[in-house]
Design goal:
Jelly Rolls, 3 helices, mainly beta, disordered N terminus
Length: 358
């Protein structure tokens, strides 16, 4: 058993002035000095200190503690108002947050009603007038009033009297045979007519009712190889190839061009069935939907791995931000130099435009 000895030395003589005094600690082997605890300086200007190896020291004077190194703790008390050298923050942040909260509160408050909005008479609306804003007769008044100044009939509408002023009657404009005085709904069907005896493709074709015009019936094998809607200024485009397309290198298999009216987005879907008709060293096909001219200009492509006389499917959907003007989107397929002879079947590309705001 080891004994701990504390040796206290008393001196009856006057101590000589020293720069510091302290107690030296040693490690458990008794050969190496470790920490030292003591006082340095005189009673008025000195301070308590703890010295540790590697110059990591702690000093205390008049209630203030100075640490050389890092302080780690599980909890610190106090407001922290006296802390210095903290990271700078934007002084306008509290005001901005208060403004946002105030704006949200005002928008959510549905109980406030402008007293001016309750002063109108029946049939009036709050609108801009010759002298400013106020209550005035609406554009469409009640029966017998002069709220309507003129009605101009559009397609499928008739007005009586023909001038469209004063008290008028608006009717649907009927044409063709029939005696019903009602208008058909837009989702109505002709199931009975289609099932009637004598209505055949041959009869319709003989009467000139089969074709590509708006007033004709389309053939069952018609295609959409140009635009899904007529005119390049519309917003849904489609193109497809019903037969196979031989991939000889990097090929633009299909493309669509849109004349964009305003800033927005275009979602492009493209798909193709890949037939590996020849055994080759590298049985891969790289596919890409892009708004660029070549695959090298775009990084987001997919590699299709196939096998001899097997089929694989390529499908990709991408969204592109667009600006006004003509925009072209492509389905590009590429085979390696040692990729043999491969084909793309039933390739389809569809582009849908959506405005950024409505």
């Amino acid at each position: 058993m080891r004994a701990l000895a504390i040796i206290t030395i008393f001196s009856l003589s006057t101590f000589a002035q020293q720069p510091k005094s302290g107690i030296q600690f040693w490690d458990t082997t008794g050969t190496n000095q470790t920490a030292k605890v003591g006082w340095t300086g005189d009673a008025s200007n000195g301070n308590f200190y703890i010295e540790m190896p590697n110059n990591k020291n702690i000093t205390a004077k008049d209630g203030n503690v100075s640490v050389t190194g890092e302080v780690t703790g599980t909890k610190f008390n106090g407001s922290g108002a006296g802390l210095t050298n903290l990271p700078e923050t934007d002084p306008t942040v509290p005001a901005k947050i208060a403004a946002i909260n105030d704006s949200l509160k005002r928008k959510a408050d549905t109980t406030k009603v402008n007293p001016l909005w309750t002063g109108g008479a029946t049939g009036q609306a709050w609108k801009k007038t010759a002298t400013g804003y106020g209550w005035a007769n609406d554009s469409v008044g009640s029966t017998g009033t002069a709220g309507v100044t003129q009605i101009t009939p559009g397609a499928g509408v008739s007005v009586s009297p023909a001038g469209g002023t004063g008290n008028v009657t608006v009717n649907a404009k009927f044409a063709g045979t029939g005696s019903k005085d009602s208008v058909a709904r837009s989702d109505h069907t002709h199931a009975n007519y289609i099932g009637a005896t004598g209505v055949t493709f041959e009869n319709l074709n003989a009467n000139g009712d089969v074709g590509a015009n708006a007033d004709q019936v389309a053939k069952g094998d018609h295609t959409h190889d140009s635009l899904y809607l007529s005119g390049i200024n519309y917003y849904v485009f489609n193109d497809h190839i019903g037969h196979y397309y031989t991939i000889t290198g990097e090929n633009t298999v299909l493309s669509v061009t849109m004349n964009i009216p305003a800033n927005g987005f275009v979602i492009v879907n493209a798909s193709s069935s890949i037939q590996f008709v020849e055994s080759a060293t590298d049985m891969t096909i790289t596919g890409l939907v892009t708004n660029k001219n070549s695959m090298a200009e775009d990084e987001l492509f997919y590699t299709i791995y196939g096998d001899y006389q097997k089929c694989a499917t390529f499908f990709q959907t991408k969204c592109f931000p667009v600006s006004p003007g003509y925009n072209t989107f492509r389905l590009i397929l590429k085979k390696p130099t040692n990729g043999g002879s491969q084909r793309a079947w039933n390739s389809v590309i569809t582009a849908f435009y959506s405005a950024r705001s409505f």
